[in-house]
């Protein structure tokens, strides 16, 4: 994968190693991983052994915790831009490669929270084993009873009583909660519901997964996929008691924490999605140029609509990649907050591009495209849900529209200046 952005020699070397690892280890291990996922009552108790082998090899190759950018001493020292180029490569094998590198959601976002806001004690207890790949984690925000795309609606209560917080709430779509390795939740709720600012009512607290009152109710399915062993679960917190030392950053700073967490995370999702799109296009090209598959006397690629679809997918992948890399570069230069406009554009464009590419590839495959014999059906489920996860399209579009419409006064002022200048030129016999 080439880039118009300047990448360090180290990043280029990591790209080469990662391509080799994904193509020669992760992709061949995909079916093995799926066959090792638990069946029946072992569904949420078994971790495929092959993933631990891949993790060990990735670590030995220096392909470990690449996501934590150079602003953190715990990370490998890459920029968000550099990691974005690596993240795309892992997207070619989304079920296996990200976890093999200890770079899979929601752990990446949670590790960044601990690295940025955690106390020394919190880092030692949770960040260290997470970065070692010894445990996994979950982020509990979305709720079953309210529209959680507006996070001010969150109803979970975090009430301080003496030296403890008592947590009561009902969450769902909590990714990673079904994993037997999940040892910690970061839970968002209201600690100060009476605060005049709707954005200072929320806090985030650490909850050990085995704390009394934590109940994983059921795994949810995404178009029939349960994504075991991690899953996306409905979770109840009933009178869950944790020490006040489990607060992240301080009371009332929940929004600050999630915005810092979600910005880079959205870029990670988008770059993995581009990797998925590249593999989708590869699968489609292999199918439509297969000489053994002919319709009406020609291979599929000789039919005009198929060839046009391939060309359009290539155009949209390349355009989407540049948009996401530009957003990552801006995060490096002006922070995630300063790059909100660029992140919003990427978060809308990329999942829609991926969904369209997969749909066209499925059409080219025919019935095989919706079967378990290709990754396209699972890719489609992921692409469609990504248009909802981390904020639905509509929220990002609305945010982007605000950025654009805010320019209205400046645009009108420039237009008036142009009119005045035109009048000056005409008054001067059409001479400058």
Topology:
Elements: H1 9-36, H2 49-60, H3 80-90, H4 97-100, H5 107-117, H6 120-131, E1 136-140, E2 157-161, E3 164-175, E4 182-190, E5 202-208, E6 214-220, E7 232-243, H7 254-288, E8 294-295, E9 298-299, H8 304-338, H9 340-365, H10 376-386, H11 393-405, H12 408-427
Parallel strand pairs: 1-4
Antiparallel strand pairs: 2-3, 3-7, 4-5, 6-7, 8-9
Helix pairs in contact: 1-2, 1-3, 3-7, 3-8, 5-6, 5-7, 7-8, 7-9, 7-10, 8-9, 9-10, 9-11
Cofactor: FAD
Keywords: FAD, Flavoprotein, Oxidoreductase
Protein name: Acyl-CoA dehydrogenase NM domain-like protein
How would you characterize the overall build of this protein?
This protein has 432 residues and is α+β, with helices and mostly antiparallel strands. The protein has twelve helices and nine strands. It has helices spanning 9-36, 49-60, 80-90, 97-100, 107-117, 120-131, 254-288, 304-338, 340-365, 376-386, 393-405, 408-427, and strands at 136-140, 157-161, 164-175, 182-190, 202-208, 214-220, 232-243, 294-295, 298-299. It has a four-stranded antiparallel β-sheet, with no helix packed on it. Helix 1 packs antiparallel against helix 2 (49-60), helix 3 (80-90) crosses helix 7 (254-288) and helix 7 runs antiparallel to helix 8 (304-338). The chain is globular and about 80 Å long. The model has no long low-confidence stretch (mean pLDDT 95).
């Amino acid at each position: 994968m080439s880039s118009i952005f300047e990448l360090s020699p180290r990043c280029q070397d990591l790209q080469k190693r990662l391509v080799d690892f994904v193509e020669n280890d992760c992709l061949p291990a995909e079916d093995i991983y799926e066959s090792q996922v638990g069946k029946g009552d072992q569904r949420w108790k078994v971790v495929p052994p092959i993933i631990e082998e891949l993790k060990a090899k990735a670590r030995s190759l220096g392909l470990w915790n690449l996501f934590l950018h150079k602003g953190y001493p715990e990370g490998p020292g890459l920029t968000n831009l550099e990691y974005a180029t690596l993240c795309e490569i892992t997207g070619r094998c989304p079920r296996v490669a990200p976890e093999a590198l200890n770079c899979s959601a929601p752990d990446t976002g949670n590790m960044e929270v601990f690295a940025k806001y955690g106390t020394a004690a919190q880092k030692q207890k949770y960040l260290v084993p997470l970065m070692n790949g010894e445990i996994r984690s979950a982020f509990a925000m979305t709720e079953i009873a309210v529209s959680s795309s507006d996070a001010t609606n969150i109803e979970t209560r975090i009430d301080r009583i003496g030296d403890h917080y008592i947590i009561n709430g009902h969450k769902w779509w909590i990714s990673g909660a079904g994993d037997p390795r999940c040892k910690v939740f970061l839970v968002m709720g209201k600690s100060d519901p009476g605060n005049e600012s709707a954005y200072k009512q929320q806090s985030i607290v650490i909850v050990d997964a085995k704390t009394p009152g934590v109940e994983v109710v059921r795994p949810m399915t995404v178009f029939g996929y349960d994504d075991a062993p991690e899953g996306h679960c409905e979770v109840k917190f009933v009178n869950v008691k944790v020490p006040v030392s489990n607060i992240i950053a301080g009371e009332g700073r929940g929004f600050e924490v999630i915005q810092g967490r979600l910005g880079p995370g959205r870029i990670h999702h988008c770059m993995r999605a581009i990797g998925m799109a590249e593999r989708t296009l590869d699968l489609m090209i292999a199918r439509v140029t297969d000489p053994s598959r002919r319709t009406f006397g020609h291979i599929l690629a000789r039919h005009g609509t198929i060839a046009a679809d391939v060309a359009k997918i290539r155009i949209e992948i390349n355009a989407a990649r540049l948009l996401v890399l530009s957003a990552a570069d801006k995060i490096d230069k002006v922070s995630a907050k300063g790059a909100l406009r660029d992140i919003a554009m990427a978060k809308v464009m990329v999942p829609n591009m991926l969904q369209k590419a997969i749909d066209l590839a499925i059409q080219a495959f025919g019935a095989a495209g919706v079967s378990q014999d290709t990754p396209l059906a699972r890719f489609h489920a992921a692409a469609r849900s990504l248009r909802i996860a981390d904020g639905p399209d509509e929220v990002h579009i609305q945010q982007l529209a605000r950025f654009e419409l805010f320019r209205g006064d400046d645009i009108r002022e420039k237009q008036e200046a142009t009119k005045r200048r035109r009048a000056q030129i005409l008054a001067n016999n059409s001479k400058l």
